[in-house]
Amino acid sequence: MDVKLFDSELKIMEVLWQEGDCTAKHISDVLKDETGWNINTTYTLIKRCIKKGAVERSEPNFMCHALIPKEEVQEAETNELINKVYDGSADKLFTALLGRKKLSAEQIEKLKQIVGDLE
Fold first, then answer.
1. Could you tell me what percent of the chain has a pLDDT over 70?
2. Biggest alpha carbon distance in the chain?
3. Which residues face 63 on adjacent strands?
């Protein structure tokens, strides 16, 4: 993914990923409740997402459509985290995540299955 989205822009994308195509007004209503942003702030962020190629606008009613799937953004953000904080080592990230709390037997089994699928 070549598009770098800031946290505020990801909030716009999150509404679109959860709710599907919707109007800019609807996005603004959702984010007003969630973040307290006014309509101008939300519209500015939507326009930034459009300019970056993450959102497509259509008429009528300033309808918004996510052009980038959530999984693509998650992968790019995870790669950036691994490169920035864990010296490019996924093992170090994995170790840090596992060391944070005691995992249940069910969670351990799920992780074994994921690792098994990778082998």
1. 99
2. 52
3. 23, 58
